[in-house]
Design brief:
By secondary structure, the chain is α+β, with helices and mostly antiparallel strands. The chain has 4 helices and 13 strands. Helix content is about 20%, strand content about 40%. A 13-stranded mixed β-sheet has the order 1-8-9-10-11-12-2-3-4-5-6-7-13. The protein is globular, with a radius of gyration of 20 Å.
Length: about 240
């Protein structure tokens, strides 16, 4: 995932521990409130992810991945340059772009509450058992962002190989970025997720059959997938 961080000027001002905890606790509470999809609402999330390879591990490389996600109670549309997933109540497609394969299957019921819980569970555990919290102001243009850095407990370092977690919040307390540093035993040294855009009630989104993303009206593959192989794993009697 291309290096997308801009070198901002760090002011070096360090705050007390209390504001850090408030920023993080507020973030976790917001994540929990978004865990259940609401009828009639479509959630949108655009992210940039970067994984820094560990040179001590063979066969790896840095990974850049930009992705978008639209999800509501009836449809799931995830798109990236590596994998795209389209699913509604009738059909499901997973497209593996590097291998030029389209896998068609039965729709799978997704427990979104459980997914959100998994995302925040480790972060909350690190917050509860941390060995130190630091708040640092970061000047971004005319704004001041808050950098919150957590040092995990020895147990988390041992079990999850996480050595440091850094959260960046905008001046209105919205999460902009999460960086996770790993120990030398991990496949990657760094995972960085940048939240480019988030909208929890997209008014412009209109559901359409997910087959429209893959096929043209004549039943032929969409032009951009003309050289892709289709693997049909549906249970067809």
């Amino acid at each position: 995932m291309k290096a997308f961080l801009i070198a901002y000027l760090l002011s070096g001002a360090v705050s007390t521990q209390e504001p850090c905890i408030q920023y993080l606790e507020g973030h976790f509470e917001r994540m929990k409130s978004f865990s259940e999809l609401v009828e009639g609402k479509t959630y949108f999330l655009e992210m940039e992810m970067f994984y820094k390879d560990n040179p001590l591990k063979e066969g790896g490389s840095d990974v850049n991945l930009n992705s978008t996600l639209y999800v509501n109670t009836e449809q799931y549309v995830f798109e990236s340059s590596t994998i795209s997933v389209y699913q509604d109540n009738s059909d499901a497609f997973m497209i593996v772009h590097p291998q030029k394969k389209i896998i068609r299957r039965e729709p799978i019921k997704v427990n979104h509450a459980e997914q959100f819980e998994k995302v925040t569970q480790l972060q909350e555990e690190i917050l509860k058992t941390n060995q130190g919290v630091t708040c640092t102001d970061k000047k971004v243009d005319s704004n001041i962002n808050m950098i919150v850095t957590l040092k995990p407990s020895a147990e988390i370092v041992k079990n999850d190989m996480v050595t440091e977690v850094e959260f960046e919040f905008s001046d209105n307390k919205k999460l902009k970025e999460v960086s996770v540093n790993f120990s030398s035993n991990h496949q990657f040294l760094l995972q960085r997720i940048t939240y480019v855009n988030m909208d929890l009630d997209v008014k412009s989104w209109k559901n359409r059959p997910v087959t429209d993303y893959v096929f043209m009206k004549e039943g032929q593959l969409n032009e951009r997938y003309k050289n892709y192989q289709i693997i049909d794993n549906r249970n067809i009697d």
